[in-house]
Design goal:
Layout (H helix, E strand, L loop, with lengths): L1 E5 L3 H13 L3 E5 L2 H10 L4 E5 L7 H10 L5 E6 L4 H9 L4 E4 L4 H28 L13 H13 L6 E4 L6 H11 L7 E5 L5 H9 E2 L11 E2 L1 H4 L4 E5 L6 H13 L1 E2 L8 E2 L3 E6 L3 H7 L4 H7 L2 E4 L10 H16 L5 E2 L1 H9 L5 H15 L4 E2 L35 H11 L4 H8 L3 H11 L3 H4 L1
Parallel strand pairs: 1-2, 1-3, 3-4, 4-5, 6-13, 6-14, 7-10, 10-13, 15-16
Antiparallel strand pairs: 8-9, 11-12
Helix pairs in contact: 2-3, 6-7, 13-15, 16-17, 17-18
Length: about 450
């Protein structure tokens, strides 16, 4: 990160330079607004850290001139006690954030790292959109299977509208990838896509992270903090693992979805937000509703448009395309040429049931790339788990209580499906639950295998 400090206090500039240089940030200085503006426009900075109160050209005037001249750096204001109103006015003019003085070292670093992450994501999205063109398909999407084509068809239809979408499916199936595609196809594509894993943030911090807080709301709240709903203004907020939300926050999320307003922790007023919410979960939310752990009204509010992603074992047609896409992505990140793959390695990848879905496939390919010799991926480069034998029941013995297809292997598929239909008296929905697949997937399998319900019985 390259940063410009604009402040008329030499001691503060010196302290910030020492602190931020140790963090690996390239730092430049200016002692007044005029000099800072000239330097900000002449050089390429990622972030400008600018004081609000300065003689001649103050922080607000700097921001206006910087924007009018086409400056692209994120501007973060620094405000002493009593000048918060000016800092807030600067944010309304387009400043990214502000830091109240006096501030702690870790507070400055945290704000800058968040700014760096946001700026990196913006550049990545712009680069991707430029490379793809507005109508081209995302390179992260592979849809050779009927199930994925159906999911993409729903996404394309709902993208122009602000409707809430709920994406469900096992862990690792690509729910966030699909949410990003929805955002890319929508009129909100030029605004932020903000993702949060609701299960990864402690309950005590989650409310503040989602909705923000005001200064003094709790111990350590030394300044106002925008939540992720406000960060995503105009764009899309992706709530991953929404089924893990504590019940205390479910009511507040429901109110935001209904009213389009957020209230920061400790605040007395609400603020309008224009955000599209896309939620995802690997949990069965209907079971959560029945168990009393998930609000029924919130479930129906999230589940306006439902998209179900099947596990990879149920859409093997996607595996060859995913291998190509994931290899290219890993090679670009590692800075190496895309290698060739020996046929027996490809066969092993196609035969594996991938209980960890696309995420497991991605990890297996990355490992193979690191271990590959002479720019060729061989069977021995793949993880041992790819070759782990699938448990097969001895002839004449019961399958046991677990009929999940991916636990037993593809060559027993017809026998297991017949067993499931027998146990459920031909009830397809109950049979699909036993098999761990969707009713639609069971229908396709019955059709491809030539099984009718009476044959199953």
């Amino acid at each position: 990160m390259k940063l410009l400090i604009i402040d008329d206090e030499p001691g503060l500039r010196r302290s910030l330079r020492l602190l931020l240089t140790e963090e690996g940030i390239e730092v430049a200085e200016a002692g007044d607004g005029d000099t800072g503006l000239a330097r900000a426009l002449a050089e390429q900075f990622d972030v400008v850290l600018c004081d609000v109160r300065m003689p001649s050209v103050d922080g607000l005037e700097f921001l206006r001139r910087h924007r009018a001249a086409g400056g692209t750096a994120l501007v973060i204001m620094m405000s002493a006690y009593g000048s918060e109103d000016a800092a807030i006015a600067a944010m309304k003019e387009g400043a990214y954030d502000y830091i109240p003085k006096p501030f702690r070292a870790d507070e400055v670093v945290l704000v800058l790292r968040k700014a760096e992450e946001r700026e990196g994501l913006r550049r990545e999205v712009e680069s991707l959109r430029s490379a793809l063109g507005s109508g081209a398909a995302s390179p992260d999407i592979v849809a050779e299977s009927a199930a994925m084509r159906s999911a993409l068809d729903v996404i394309a239809k709902v993208a122009p509208h602000a409707t809430t979408v709920l994406i469900t499916g096992p862990s690792g199936t690509g729910k966030e990838v699909l949410a990003r595609e929805l955002h890319r196809l929508s009129p909100r594509a030029g605004h932020p896509f903000v993702a949060v894993n609701c299960a990864a943030i402690p309950d005590a911090l989650l409310e503040s992270e989602l909705f923000g807080h005001v200064r003094g709301a709790f111990t350590g709240a030394v300044g106002d903090h925008k939540g992720l709903f406000e960060e995503a203004a105009g764009g899309t907020l992706f709530l991953d693992e929404v089924g893990e939300l504590p019940t205390s926050l479910q009511a507040k999320l429901l109110r935001v979805l209904q009213d389009g307003e957020v209230r920061r922790v400790g605040d007395r007023v609400s603020h309008r937000v224009d955000v599209r919410v896309v939620a995802a979960t690997a949990r069965d939310l209907e079971q959560g509703v029945a168990a009393g752990t998930f609000r029924e009204d919130l479930f129906y509010r999230l589940n306006v448009i439902a998209v179900r992603l099947l596990p990879l074992v149920e859409r093997p047609e996607d595996i060859p395309g995913l291998i190509r896409v994931l290899l290219a992505r890993h090679c670009a990140r590692l800075g190496i040429a895309v290698p060739s793959i020996e046929p027996d390695a490809v066969r092993a990848l196609l035969d594996h049931t991938w209980p960890g879905n696309v995420r497991e496939l991605s990890n297996a390919l990355e490992r193979a790339l690191v271990l590959a010799r002479e720019r060729t991926v061989r069977r021995d480069d793949l993880p041992a788990a790819v070759f782990a034998p699938v448990a097969r029941p001895p002839a004449g013995r019961s399958f046991g209580p677990d009929l999940k297809l991916r636990q037993h292997g593809g060559d027993l598929e017809e026998q297991i499906i017949r067993e499931a239909l027998l146990r459920t008296g031909g009830n397809r929905r109950k049979a699909a639950e036993l098999l761990g697949i969707s009713v639609r997937a069971l229908f396709y399998k019955l059709k491809s295998l030539g099984i009718t319900d009476d044959q199953g019985q």
